[in-house]
Design brief:
The structure is a homodimer of 127-residue chains. Chain A has 127 residues and is mostly helical. Chain A folds into two domains: 4-75, Winged helix-like DNA-binding domain superfamily/Winged helix DNA-binding domain (Arc Repressor Mutant, subunit A, Orthogonal Bundle), CATH 1.10.10.10; 88-120. Chain A has seven helices and two strands, in the order ααααββααα. The first copy, chain A, has helices at 4-12, 15-25, 31-35, 44-56, 76-86, 89-107, 116-120, and strands spanning 60-62, 71-73. A two-stranded antiparallel ribbon of chain A has the order 1-2. In chain A, helix 1 packs antiparallel against helix 4 and helix 1 crosses helix 5. At the A-B interface, helix 1, helix 2, helix 5 and helix 6 of A face helix 1, helix 2, helix 5 and helix 6 of B. The first copy, chain A, binds a DNA duplex (30 and 30 nucleotides) through residues 14, 16, 30-32, 42-46, 48-50, 52-53, 66-69.
Chain lengths: 127, 127
DNA sequence: ATTATACTTTACCAACTGGCTAATTAACCG
DNA sequence: CGGTTAATTAGCCAGTTGGTAAAGTATAAT
């Protein structure tokens, strides 16, 4: 199909799949346990399909226990994705610096962890 | 369409688009300048489409200068993606620890930056 | 043997993606 | 004005994605 990194990013590009990963972060779970919170919006085969995508991306490993399929999280592909992002870290920090300068110029406040003014404007698109 | 994070990951899930971002990391470039390295494998409208995806994901900003469209990198969406990944940092570190222990048990060697044995096995899928 | 549980597979569908060619828009140059 | 350069738009197409319902498989329980 495509390269591993593309498969990883592609697998992460869906809120349901990210929610499945978040669930598995709390520990192993069977397919039905994973599916349960989604069954109001989606059928079981739908969840199975999402799991398949995560599986082929190497993010989830499925094992067998009688008729159950316990799934576990496998973060190895995430380290590659993180490494890719890391290349842009310098620019991201510069971007955050610009945010800090901007906020300082607008609110006359520095960026402190629990500064409400800063937090409120944190999701501004461009700085 | 979908949420911002999904749009970001989706935009990153293509090697051509990642290459475009890498190009823009070196500085502003017009559409034809960006397209040039890809024209052996793809036409100009193809590149335009990829740029559109990056633009709607907020990763690229296009401005106007006569008939040229200078594009710049915008890393803001990457900080959100990085923040999402950060949630899995603990598991990633544990995974790397397991890699270290495994390598130690197999090669009787610790993980050193320039250890050839360790580097050669670094891309092993599961540890 | 039958039934129930857990899950997958198949077949179908609409929508999206990624590519193309050809046509169009917009700006500059002489 | 007419031509050239830069880029986008339109229309087409094949393949993928994300969902469904219905049928199938495998294991356990009675």
């Amino acid at each position: 199909m495509q390269d591993a990194l593309s498969r990883t990013f592609s697998a992460l590009a869906d809120p349901t799949r990210r929610a499945i990963l978040a669930r598995l972060r709390r520990g192993e779970a069977t397919v039905s346990q994973i599916a349960e919170p989604f069954l109001t919006q989606m059928t079981l085969p739908g969840v199975t399909k999402h799991l398949k995508v995560l599986e082929t991306a190497g993010l989830v490993t499925k094992s067998r226990d009688a008729q159950w399929r316990p799934c576990t999280l496998n973060v190895a592909p995430l380290t590659d994705a993180t490494a890719w992002m890391e290349e842009y870290r310098v620019q991201m920090e510069a971007s955050l610096d610009r945010l800090g300068l901007y906020l300082k110029s607008v609110t006359n406040t520095t960026l402190e962890p629990n500064d409400d003014d800063a937090a409120a404007d944190n999701d501004a698109q461009t700085v």
